[in-house]
Amino acid sequence: MDQAEIERLAGGSPRLAYEDIANHPRLPEAREVFLDRFLALYTGDPFIVRLLIESGRFLVYHIAAVLDAGVDPARRDTWLTITRLKREMSHFGLASDRHIDGLIARLCSAGFMDLKPADQDRRVRILKPTEKLKAHDRDWLAAHIAPLAFLYPGQDYGSVTQQDQSFHSLYRRVSVAFLPLGASLLLSLPDTMLFFNHAAGAVVQAALLRTAMRAPGYPDAAVPYADIGERFGVSRTHVRQLLVAAEAAGLVKLHAGGGRTVQILPRHWSSYDRGMAAGMYLHDLIYVATERAMQPHIGEPSAQNSI
């Protein structure tokens, strides 16, 4: 999107520039904040990891949460039907229709979503995220806002960090218009997508980076990965196959017998930070747009004066 379109979506000039976030001198510290919050969100619950942390699975949950916030019962075109969800998913190109059907069924059976006839037309089935999914989404958003609050303490992100439910609902409603920008940003990050397209790939990556940041040799530390599969409910073979693909992409170097020790290469640190900065840029845009949507339209004639 060009700058004019971004300003239209945000309701004015962006508050932060992507380049300023990406070049912030304390970005590595913000990475540490984010990794801790992100890992805390998924550690200890392998079921949630397997259910939600993979590109197609995550996007079904995430896009459903966004679209649900924008539903107007009086407008059929806003209803969260399976057809509409698939149409929005197609912008990301990460899951087939059959795959999406299976993921919806799993989310419903796990109590994250309901699929029921619409009150206005019983022939149409509507998807509805449950409170269980919404609570997870509030936690997820707070984790992704945390590095912004760290880098820019002068900005108030309290409505998300304190999980104000009404603000969160409006934030997600505003997010609908930003879905194409989110798809564009995500698909422009091939290194991020390498991990994201594997089950539990995002948390495996986060755990490796966080372990390396704590190691004495950081940023050139080589760290073991033997316990990561068990930690997140995936097999060691799955983790190794993911890391072999990452090594082929120039992101890591596998050492020791069987490659059980992983060295994070410079490209991996820089590409992860670029992806994190892109996410922070998008979240700040939507946060600002949400705040602007809450403000009265100063200068507009009142209904009485316009009669």
Secondary structure elements and their pairing?
Blueprint: H1 3-10, H2 18-22, H3 27-42, H4 46-52, H5 55-69, H6 82-89, H7 97-109, E1 113-117, E2 125-129, H8 131-151, H9 158-161, H10 165-175, H11 179-187, H12 190-196, H13 201-214, E3 222-224, H14 228-232, H15 236-248, E4 252-255, E5 261-264, H16 266-294
Antiparallel strand pairs: 1-2, 3-5, 4-5
Helix pairs in contact: 3-8, 3-13, 5-7, 5-10, 8-16, 10-16, 11-16, 12-13
| Pattern of helices and strands | HHHHHHHEEHHHHHHEHHEEH
Strand proportion, as a percent range, falls in 5-15%
Termini Cα gap? 38 Å
- Strand arrangement, major sheet: 3-5-4
The major pleated sheet works out as: 3 strands, antiparallel
Helical residue percent band: 55-70%
Overall pLDDT score: 89
Number of helices: 16
> Over all CA atoms, what is the radius of gyration?
21 Å
Question: What is the 3D form?
Answer: globular
Class by alpha and beta content: mainly alpha
Low-confidence stretches: 297-307
Oligomeric state as shown: single chain
Overall strand count = 5
